[in-house]
Every structure is written in C-alpha cells, then in structure tokens.
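Regression test attached.
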Amino acid sequence: MFYPIAGKMIPWFSIPATTLFAVGMFVGFFIAPADYQQGEAYRIIFIHVPAAWMGMLLYVLMAFYAGIGWAFNARLSSMMASALAITGAMFTLISLVTGAFWGKPTWGTWWVWDARMTSTLILMFLYIGFISLQASIDDPRRADRAGAVLALVGVINIPIIYFSVQWWNTLHQGATIRLLQKPTIRGSMLAALLIMLAACWLYSVAVVLTRLRCIILEREQNASRFAEVGV
Amino acid sequence: MLRWIVWRDLMLAWRRRADMLSTVFFFVIVVSLFPLGIGPETQLLRTIAPGVVWVAALLASMLSLGRLFANDYQDGTLEQLLLTPQPLFLVVLGKTLAHWIIAEVPLVLVAPLVGVQFDLSRETLWILFASLLIGTPVLSLIGSVGAALTLGLRGGGVLISILVLPLYIPALIFGSGAVEASIMGATPAPHLYLLGAFAIVTLLFSPWAAASALRISLE
Amino acid sequence: MNWPDLSMGGYGFYIWGSYLFSLIAIVWEVVSLSQRKKALTQHKEQSSDSVPASVLRGSANETTS
C-alpha cells in the first residue's frame, strides 16, 4: 500500500531537487562574491557543507527509524533505515572528498586531521559498519534488529566521539591556526548554502523512497519464492 | 549466578591456555613491528609509543572477541543461558568480566615490559599500565556488543573489527593521551578521568545492548 | 551578478574537481538505483506472467536452484 503512494511522491521531490541544485549553483557562482581571504576556493563549501550536514542528519534519521522499527516491530520503519544508509554514506563520502579538495589549495595538504574532517571520517566508518552488518545477515528481520542496535549504539557514541576528537585535536594543534576556517559569510553565500542544502534534502527524499520501494519489492519476491517452494 | 558464570568461563579458558597466550604474543609481536618498520631512533619511538601500544592492544582485543560467545553458542549453552530466570544482561556482564580477566589483564600486565622497548620512563610506564587498566574494560564491554551482533555470521573477526573499532576511538584518544602527557611532563590526570568516565558510561549501557543483541541473534 | 572567472583564480581544478566528483557520486547512486528497480520490476512481471502459484505448489517437491 505504501508502495504506490511512494511511487507517486517521488517525482514531487526529484524534479524540485534538480531545479534547486541548478538555482543553488547559479547563486553560488554567479551572485556570491569571492571571499576576502580564500578567493574563489571557498566556493567548494556550497557542496561540502550541505553534504556534511546531510551525512550527519541521515545517520540520526537512520538510527531513529531503525529504533522505531525494532521497538514497535514495524518492518517498514526498519526498511526505511536500511534505505537511508547508502545515501547517508554517499553524502559523507562527498563531504570527505570535497573537504580534501578544499584543504589542498587553502592549507597545502590533501588531508587535514582537524576535528571536523576526522569526525566525518569516523562517521563514514559507522556507516560502513551498519551497511556491512546488514549485508552479512541473510534473515531480514535479524538484519533489521541488529542494525537497530548498532545504529543506536552509534548515535549514543557520536557526541562522545566528537568530543574526544575535539579534545585530541586541541591537544595536538600546537601553534597552527584553526584549519579549514569558514569564510566570513555574506548574505548571498548563505542563500546559496541553504538552497543547496534544500536541494540535497529533496534529492535524499527522492532517492531514499526509490530505494525503499526496491527493498519492499525484494523482500516480497524473496518471501513469495519461499512460498512457492512450500517452505 | 554472576560469580558462577565468571568462574565457569575462567575454568574453560584455563583449559585452553594457549588461546590466552596467543593474544599476548600477538600484542607483543605487533608492538615490536613498529620500530622495525619505522626505525630505532629513540626520540621518535618515545613519541609514537603511546599510540602504538594502545592500537596494538585494540587489535589484540579484536582477536579474542570472537570467542566471547561463539563457543557457548556452538555447544548450545548460550541458548540454555537465555532460558534461565536470571536477567540476560547479568550473564553478559559475567562473560564480559571473564573476558576481561582472560584476554585483557594479561595485556595490561605485559604492556609495561613492552613499553621498555620504547625507552619510556618508569613513571610513564606506570601511567601506561593505569591507562590500559582503566581502558581495557571498555574494550571488553563494547566488544561484547559487537560479538553478540555478529554471532554465527560469516565474515567473523573482520566484521567485528569494522563494527567495534570506531566505537573504541574515545578510549584510544584518552588512553594514549594520558601516556603522551606523561612523556611530555604534563599531568595525565584529565585524560585518565575522561577515560574513567567513558568506561563508566560504557559499563552502563553495553551489557544491556549486548543482551538485546544476543536475543536478536539467537531468535 | 558577476560572470565567474572559469579558472576560479587558479583554483579551478579543486573547485570543478569537487563538483565533478559529487556529480559522479550522485549519478552513480541514481543509475544503480534505477538498474536495481528495473531488474526487480522485470522479475515481478515475469513471475506474474508465468504459471500461477497454485500450480507451482503442486510441484513443491522440486528443490530450488
């Protein structure tokens, strides 16, 4: 029942998403001025920052849906969590790679062990853990519930991990200035940033719903295959 | 009941002493590889020592986690334990405590010896010992959640590592930070306090999470 | 509105490189998802076109491949 509704909803998200991406890029490149300190290089933030936020947001959502699915035995909720995982991981990866591309011209090295990048890397590991665990379990219900435990443990640990990484980073800073400093935000920059964030958000909804439909179909087909054989 | 579980696991492990020793040997070998890979310059070794010893302890712990529940799972004891009127998290706590005694305490005891290879001062070696003493329970506790989640799955040890190593990072940071502070002459106290706090938090939620995970894996 | 300098003040490689990578990642996700969906819907159509389940249940002694 959810399947056809989701199907109809998808274009309502995918089309605005593409439009907003275009608008965001336009504002970011044609309207926002160059930064005082970083020149044109800062323009990477228009994809880097929204991707980073989406990576974190989707993880929390994933844990939420997984938790609900486990607590209330709601299969659709668990499937939603699984659908969110890959998109979240992908945004986190984009955030890491674009962060590297930003670091090289501004600070001279491809990788920078500052608190934000390091925390994003650890978030990537958490996603990989969740996805690997679910991939290794054949029984879908066990996979759902095991994923829920892992995601919830992850979510509880994230503030602790972030704090410890901050701690680690300030210890080892020495005399270096805070790395990957944000440029002073002007109105048009903020607008572009928010538009791109909205675009990523809409894109995520469209893609996750599509994946959810695939998961629903897959589980249905696996179930009916067993039924046909009389298992 | 808790004491019985701990005692039983200790007895079983004693019969397979070789397993216990292999974890320690792995730890020692891994630590020794780093100077071989990096060079014998004393100053450099002193700098990397905290991180190297701590990471080696993490990796050695990973090896032993597979055994935490697997043996009882294979001979059916685990399912029996699930059926007892005792709360499952007590069973988990007992097994985790036993794991700590069997797999981690030997590491803690051997670590200062290994630290001598890196030319650490006596005071630093004490801090190394203390940091591992406080931090290794965390390894057993969080590890028990990973072991419970992956019970019976193919992919075994590598999968547990992927799940659990990111969660160890705070312990690694505070633990090695304490040793490093000691090397540089600063006080290791804040690091050890944070490590202790993390250990307490872990103690509060891990047995419960691992018990839930066990139920999920055994259904 | 200002026409941007396409070389981005010399940073062109990094900026366009970032956006290119992001574009590739997004395209990969969308394409692999649509392939997955296509495979599933094809399979669904095939199984509904084929012999109804009741007949298949009669030959339940066959093992799956």
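Expected vs. actual: identical. The longest helix of chain C spans residues 12-49.
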